[in-house]
Amino acid sequence: MPIPTITSPSATPSRLTDTNDQFVANADIFVDWMSGLPAEFATYATELVDATTGYYSATSTTSVAIGTGSKSFTIQTGKAYAAGDYVIAADSAAPTTNYMFCQVTSYNSGTGALVLGSQRVGGSGTKTSWTINLSGINGIAGDTLPSFSGNGSKFLQLDSGGSATRWTALGYTQIATNSVSASASPLTFTSIPAIYSDLLLDASHVNSAQQLRLELSSDGSSWTSTANILGNNAGTNKGSFLIPKYTGTQGDVIGVYKDALGAAPTLTSGTINVLSWALASGVQAMRISVSPGNITGTFTLYGKL
């Protein structure tokens, strides 16, 4: 892909060395040369762009499956790809649907062997007609947000990895979720942060026995005496327990529970319990147990700043 050269002037006028007649003649030649420069520069620029593009534009008939990871192609020889370049490999038949954003791992200009590291893809399938060109650096993918439907009064909560993956009731932040399956062992929440003023424990479970119990602790080892927060309600249960001002030394646990949930909503009153507690250092841990019997379900602890 040769790039054309710019024509040099055949003569330049000089008042120091030219006679008057030579100066006039050389000036005419020089002006004629200058008048042709715009056209030459335009041709040069066009050919330069075409040549540069050609060095980084390739096609391939290698059968490659769309996906992340290492991908090997055979393209034309004599290209200018180098390890570290970013390229996009697109399905020639549907380039906006099927593509892979890649970084060049290696390229052999003599054989046309091109190895790419695919980082992000669009579409799917195995393709045999590819167009490969330079691309910008692949941007960081954003979070895949949960559905907004039915969550209009909530805010997005970051998980432990820093991704926005769940909606949380306004004013409360999810601290932890514990699930238990057919176990009589206590379900324990420990090291509850002291930055929250109130705690809210949300429960949804099936217990095969009576007397769902709550115990509180200021150190995670010494527990209050067992208090029943739901009794004589074996079956499917759902409800919440609020511990206001839990960092204080004493307070109440207010629980609202509904047992035997049906397929359709009801206005039947649930179980309401108010338990008082006193701990010298406030609540730093809590645990739920059912005795005797088993419990299966999920308990989620929220904190309010």
Task: Explain what you see.
- By secondary structure, this protein is mainly beta.
- Helix content is 12%, strand content 44%.
- The protein has one helix at 20-55; strands spanning 57-60, 64-65, 69-74, 86-91, 99-108, 113-122, 126-127, 130-134, 154-158, 164-169, 172-183, 187-189, 198-207, 212-217, 227-230, 235-243, 250-259, 271-278, 285-290, 295-304.
- The strands form 5 sheets. A 6-stranded antiparallel beta sheet has the order 1-8-4-5-6-3. Strands 11-20-13-16-17-18 form a 6-stranded antiparallel beta sheet, with no helix packed on it.
Summed up:
With 305 residues, the chain is mainly beta. It is 12% helix and 44% strand.
What would the keywords be for this entry?
single chain, 305 residues, 6-stranded antiparallel beta sheet, 12% helix
Helix-strand layout with pairing:
Blueprint: H1 20-55, E1 57-60, E2 64-65, E3 69-74, E4 86-91, E5 99-108, E6 113-122, E7 126-127, E8 130-134, E9 154-158, E10 164-169, E11 172-183, E12 187-189, E13 198-207, E14 212-217, E15 227-230, E16 235-243, E17 250-259, E18 271-278, E19 285-290, E20 295-304
Antiparallel strand pairs: 1-8, 2-7, 3-6, 4-5, 4-8, 5-6, 9-10, 11-20, 12-19, 13-16, 13-20, 14-15, 14-19, 16-17, 17-18
